[in-house]
Structure formats: structure tokens, C-alpha cells
Amino acid sequence: MPGISRRTLLTAGAATAAVAVGGTLTAPAARAAAPTLPNGISKDKVLAVGMDGLRHDRIGAAKAPALKSLMANGTYGTSLLYANPMAATSSGPGWSTVSTGVWPDKHGVKDNTFAGKNYARYPGFLARLKQVRPGLSLFAAVDWPELDTHGTVTPGADAKLVYNNDYAVNDKLITEQTEDVLRNQNPDALFVYFGQTDEIGHNNGATSRKYLDAIDVQDGYLGRLLAAIKARPTYGTERWTVIVTTDHGHTDGGGHGGSSIEERRTFVLAQGPGIAAGVRPADTRPVDVAATVFHQLGIVPEASWGLDGRPIQQRSTDPFDSLRSSLSPRVDETGIPADVLGFTHTAPSGWSVVNDSMGTGGVTEWRGWSFTTDEFWSRTQPEQYRELNVRARGVFAVADSDEWADKSFSGRYDSTLVTPAYDVGGRAAVTLAFTTLYRHEGGQTAEILASFDGGTPAVAKSYTSDVISRPQSVTVDVPAGASSVNFRFRYTGSNDWYWVIDGVEIR
Ligand SMILES: [Zn+2]
């Protein structure tokens, strides 16, 4: 690691010990020299910028010209994080999710102890890039040193800057040296981290003037990096992608780790070749950052990597997502803000919901299978595992007997979601694939039934224990001569839990 230098900080706010980076230790300097990178090999290039604890709904109130320019010229998707028990809304899990492109149930980091980390199986994207294309020139800069010491971000980098968490000083140092690298060297992929937004969020709250000022300071750093890219002599022949993301939100008063919507707020913002301008998709997730990096560099991830993300330009195409424009605001769920459009009982074209045996009354939104969003459904009641629905995207289907029972009702929850009829002519078997979040309780049932050519449905699979956000598949033999199949998801219960279905595909 040639030429790496850092400052030794003696200011009162510099709580952590000096961080060794394997390079030479230099005296404090007004401006440290940038490390030297190998010459890059790619015309496709990516700058990923992580802004810690940046609550996206505050950007609008800040000046933030660089972020707003990226939003206007790029794709900007907001979403909600998991919460415990999958992982806390904290930086260890958050940056692990961004860097590895998989959820905490794979990368293993549940809090800032990093206990259980599994970066050997799920490396950060710089480490993965170095494995698959060793000639790429890779750079990392962080001033939350845990991202280096635990191996979250920096492994794979040909050169790295690692400073301590005196963000007011070190975010600027990182900017200056990264600017230097961008102007004067030839990096291919960079991951640059800024921490000040999180610190100001903790100290002053996310609704404070100081938080907006911190966004503007960081936006200024981002703007300098963007200008440095455009100033490259070879800029005209290069294809740059810039990605900005965060690891978690903040409460209004400041702080995170818990399950509130404000703490769970995240976003992915990207501008670059093939990424549409001014698009605001409702189906992005922070795991998409790594997948977007790979895609923009022309690298096709192998299935064995187990990525949960996908490139930001890919939209969900499952039938439930076609319902987004018909979602309604709350009726009985008065804890959900009236401006959050989030549910419908109208099934997608070709689908149906059978409520012939469904009880009466109850909470309107959840009487029988409903089509809803994370933003709406996970607001109904926190900390009942609804935040763990990480592998659903956009609009999904839910049968929730627990929420239905929160208003006077009679009878039992009993509702069946029926797929269209799929052609199976000449096939020996058919596979139904989907993603589920299933929370079990003794009194409920959850069955998948298959019906060929309109015949009597037969049980193909049933659930009797929790399945926490997993891809599923059910394969059934096609009877000789059968030409079509439809599947039924039947859920029954009485103030028990729920069943989520998303991403249904026939294979
Ligand atoms: Zn924090």
C-alpha cells in the first residue's frame, strides 16, 4: 500500500485511537498527499459515496445542489430497512448491507460489534471486484475506521485512506485526497465514506438546522468529487457512474438503532450510463448498490455469490407491482399517515381473492388478502417481524390475521389468493417460485394448493414454522394430458400472525 498517510488527531473530539493503515505515519499536515494507485484498465468507472445517517426526507429542505442534480439526472429510490431481530438500524449492519449486496441474514452483521460477520462468504464489492477483475484500480476512503478494521469496505482496495471519526476534520481530508486521486490518477472504482451527517444527527437531531447544514457540507464534498471527475482529461472517453447511499436514518430528535420509520429510512441514488434520469422507483433496496457497481462495470454476478441486490435500472415486474397506481390510503389504520397510499383488495389482472369463508368486520385494510407496501404494512405495528420483509419489492400480497383482528370482528380469517391459469401443456412438472415472509402461530394454517384444468385443488405445500424472508419454490408433477394449472395461497387464522407473498413466477 504505497504512500498512504494520515493525520494524528489531537482534538478533543477525536475519541478513537489512531488507526494504523500499514503505511507511513506522517506529521499533521494541512493537506496530506493522496496515495498512489495502479493505473486503471476500465473506461467504465464507478464512484460510490456513503453518507452516514442521511435521512433522505431532509434533503429537500437543504440546499444540496449536488444531490439534487444527481436526483434530476439519475434514478433515486427510497426504501425502509429491516429492524431487529434481523439487525439494528445501525452502521455496522447498514454498511455491510451496502458493501456486500446481501441482507444481514447472510452477511451476519447485526449490530456495531460486527459479531457474526461473514465477509469471507459475502465480501464487500471492492474485494469481489479484486477477485474477479484484479487489474481494476480500486480506492477506498473511510473515517469510521471500523469499516476498515472489520473488513467491511476496504479489503480489495489498492489504496485506502483510513481516518478516525473526527468527521468535521476527516470528511474534508478524504474529499481533498479523493479529489486528487480523481483528477490526477486513473481509478476504476471508488468507495468514499462521510460521517458528519450521522454525528450531527445524533447531537442535534434530524430536524435541526445544523443537520441541514451538515447535509450541505457533505453535498459540497460530493460536488467537489463530481467536478474532479468532469475535470479529468480523459472524461470524454469514460463512462462514469456515481452512486450515493446511506446506512440508516435518524429519529427526529437524533439517534437510531430502533424500528421507527425515520430510523429505517434509506435511499439509493445513481446517475450513469443506462440509468434513467428523474426516475423515482418504489422498488429499490440498499443491497442494490453493489449489484449496480457490478452492472456498470460490465460484470455479471455469479449465482454462487448469493447477491440479494439487482442493478438500480431493473424494475420489479411481478404482477403485484402493477397495482401501485391503485393503492389507497388508510381506512381503519389511523396510525398510518393519511398521505401514505398503501393498500388495495383488487387483485391484479387474471388473479382473484376468494373470501367466501372469511369472517366479517375487522380492520378494513386486512380483511382477506391485501396488496400493500413495506411503507404501509410495516407501519401497522412495529417489532412484530414485519420489518424483516426485506426480500419483498414494491407491492406484495399479505394475509394478516393479527392486524385484521384489531377491530371488532366475527368468524375466522379465511382467505385464498388464486393465481391465473398457467399453460403446462406437454410438461412433466411445473414450479411455482416466490418470496415469502411467514410468521407462524399454532392456530393458523398456510397452504399452497395446485389445481389442474380447473380440477379439485390439492395441497402442494404447507407452512408450520416461521420463514423469515426467503425465496421459495414448489414443484408439482403435471398429470398426463393436463393443459393448465393455477395455484392457491390459502391462509386461515384467528388473531394469529401473517403470510406475505411476492415475486411470484412460474418456471
Ligand atoms: Zn449513528
From TrEMBL:
The keyword Signal applies. Residues 1-32 form the signal peptide. Keywords: Signal. PROSITE patterns: TAT. It comes from the Bacteria. Pfam families: Phosphodiest. The keyword GTP-binding does not apply. This is Nucleotide pyrophosphatase. It comes from Streptomyces luteireticuli. The lineage of its organism: Bacteria, Bacillati, Actinomycetota, Actinomycetes, Kitasatosporales.
